[in-house]
Model the fold of this input.
Amino acid sequence: MSELTTGKFSMAISDLENVQITINNIVGAIEKEADEIDVEMGPTVKPGVSSLRDWDHNILDRYNPVYTPMCDQCCYCTFGPCDLSGNKEGACGINLEGHNAREFMLRVITGAAAHSGHGRHLLHHLIGLYGKDHPLDVGATNIIAPNVQLVTGVSPKTLGDLDSVLSYVEEQITQLLAAVHVGQEGAAIDFESKALHGGMIDHVGMEISDIAQISCLDFPKSDEEAPLADIGMGCLDSSKPTLIVIGHNVAAVTDIIDYMEDKGLNDKIELGGLCCTALDMTRYKTGDRTLPRAKVVGTLAKELKTIRSGIPDVIIVDEQCIRADVLKEASKLMIPVITTNDKVMYGLKDRSNDSIEDILEDLTTGKEKGALMFDYEKLGELAPRLTMMMSEIRKQKGIKRLPTDEELKELADSCVHCLKCEVACPNSLPISEAMTALSEGDLSNFELLHDKCIACGRCEYACPKDIDIVNVIEKSSQRVISEEVGKVRVGRGPISDPEIREEGVNLVLGTTPGIVALVGCSNYPDGTKDLFTIADEMLRRSYIVVVSGCSAMDLGMYKGEDGMTLYEKYPSRFKSGGLLNTGSCVSNAHITGAVIKVASIFAQKNISGNYEEIADYTLNRVGAVGVAWGAYSQKAASIGTGCSRLGIPVILGPHGSKYRRALIAKPYEEEKWKVYDARNGSEMQIPAAPDYLLTTAETVEEMMPMLAKSCIRPSDNNMGRMIKLTHYIELSQKYLGIMPEDWHKFVRTETDLPLAKREKLLKILEKEHGWEIDWKRKKILSGPAMKSDVSAQPTNLKRLCKEA
Amino acid sequence: MVDVIKNTQIHCTYGCKSSKAVQPDVAGKMISKAKRPLFIVGSQILKDEELLKRSIEIAKKADLPVAATGHSMSGLVDQGINAKYINVHALATYLCDPNWTGLDGNGQYDTIVVLGHFKYYIDQVLSGLKSFSKIKSIAIEREYIQNATMSFGNITPAVHIEALDELIENL
Ligand code: SF4
Ligand code: SF4
Ligand code: SF4
Done:
């Protein structure tokens, strides 16, 4: 997609309906051209599917795609199903490797489409309300949209500017989806390149969504002191009428909040949210740091439990991470459900053109189980009124929620310990054992299980005794659930330019040991506390911890020994030891955005249409690592893959292996760990870190040293390397009980060694690795595989090198 | 003698090829016969002392080199076994590379034995090996691991310990 030109205008005039819009676009385009006349453009403005292929092949040469198929069959077309086991070819000629690369790419573009589809809906809605000329304002920054600018060369100034960029995103997703069609691509590596393209595009789509809503809905704008919101299943006051919103798109909810405020209902109705809508509800109208209007109940893992608790009187759903059985489950407890987005309609009647009174009548009498409502103004009034009415009705009817204590015991007694539930459980949770304990009156097994259970319900349909296992877990855990109350910092939006200006140098030299970004969903291997453990450890070590989405929520559920959540304890500033919540799922773009800004502001690189150079800069010089510990959705795959292309390594929790492919390097392939020195084009050896661009870890303990190692970069100065190495060694000792096997490979000179341990480590280097040490001066004479040269300019790109 | 092969129930299939259920004595003999075996021990052994004990015993008795994945290393240090930490996903990658020379530099492995892993995770890791390597994998977990070459079935923790004892006898 390119900007419209005069030539195209004369063609478009025959389509009279579009005249107004076309003229606006053209005027805008001319103005912008004048604005940007001096803006330097990189070589890939609005890259097509193959434009960045060389870069992809460059990184894939070191970071090899590793396939762990979910299935060794393919059933994509009517030639199949085909048996691809043992990497055989199917009837169309594709092998298991190629098919898995295709499957992975499909996950990535599904995620990208979810975000950009969300963006399109939101943008359409906001342009309808505020107009195309509404200015973009995301706080103290000149680079309003770093991802957009990096990929498309456009520096958007208004809502309307985002419109055309989004069209580019949509075009790319369509092109990528076309490649999934049977036949065609046979090379796994080019499916990989396409997946990376989809990941990059996703960050553009996310950025558009978030800056549009930040600019229009009075969200905090790069605010270090955004307020705190309540979070947890325990924070809902169930004595009040309760309205719960589930999903990701705040467009439908703002009218509800406005109506409640107008009518003075804020104290009368509990308004809570699940998943990212919840986070965005807390951002709405908190740009002035007033308290959020809504509470955050939790993540997708709490959806079924929240419904089964019977607490909601009305449920609104919008889009994305919403259970497909919300209507079915809610109806059992007489909770009407309102759907508001064409992605989720549950077969409900469209009531957008009906009167509120008629809808209220049908829903309160139970004539209809729910309604589809596209008119958000109407929804604004309907939802709170319905909530007040349903609360009364449901109270009178005495809606039965969870089992009573007696029923609980009976349920436990009826278990025949066949283990069918455990086979069905995605986490193989020890349900049978817990049933035995419960029969004996001991709730503790189920209390422990509650936090690890994602409330998926698979155990229930496996059980031959029809035990409602989720209800058993929830009822047994009432005590712990009531204590589930915490605080989450309202999403602050992007990182500001002044913050980057101050911190950029520390990141590139390594004196701030790294950025750890905790993102993604809640499919954890061992419960929600893992996130707290990671953030707590890394913050103590002065890493910058950036969070978003469901990770941001779960992190706030725990308090340290001092009784404070980490949000209350650490500043929300982009600096060493800062903890920043950027916001919801689409706010992930601000994390990559911050990295792009480091290249732009600190290193003075042109970012417009200059993707390859900036990705190369990140890979070689910015110590950042992403963690999607509970990744489950396709969106986490696309977010992570966008990071991969930009040179940011990402670790997933063990469930992430089900995305089918990782990008893992081989430290033992020495020839792969060489880059150029841009000063003269000579080759330089670099340490094998990061040794993956996307991988998984088994446990949080394992991940800790991995995080430290992943932040090591060739550009570290001695102080920086010393700090990073100290953390790597200490974390390995603390969590694995050993010195890391490869620590010495990161040592270039004695000044890279942790000060307190220098002498001891020099001895090990001499004794175990045969290095020559001058003991008088405590200097390394020989041994290291690479030189320490802080002014070297490591790059993977020959074209960026000056002639020798 | 415990029977560990009667319950090979699965929730969903991973496709065309599934593992063969194996009894502990047979598994023990196969491990002893392997030319280049590797014992891959996951972090779940730390959740049960009995399991940890058995893992160490297996490594000792069959003189198996141990790849300690996750943070299982913290339970395996100073136990008189030859254990090295490695990430299991990275390990699976190297195991598919004919040029990898192993944890000890002596060459690629021919048989791996897995114990102490999350079921879904090891199944995933093994699905790669199943299709992209020639390595034989023996799962001695308490769950039926579909993507291994051979596996115990679904058993209770108590039966699992008994089965491991029997396996140890046959090493
Ligand atoms: S797409 Fe190819 S491998 Fe898949 S079912 Fe069709 S012919 Fe078989
Ligand atoms: S499936 Fe039902 S009966 Fe069988 S162990 Fe689980 S809860 Fe008990
Ligand atoms: S609802 Fe909980 S216990 Fe049941 S299968 Fe899902 S995760 Fe396991």
Remarks:
- Chain B is about 35% helix and 15% strand.
- Residues A 424-427, 429, 431, 453-459, 469-470 surround iron/sulfur cluster (ligand 3) (CB under 6 Å).
- The CA atoms of residues 25 and 167 of chain B lie 5 Å apart.
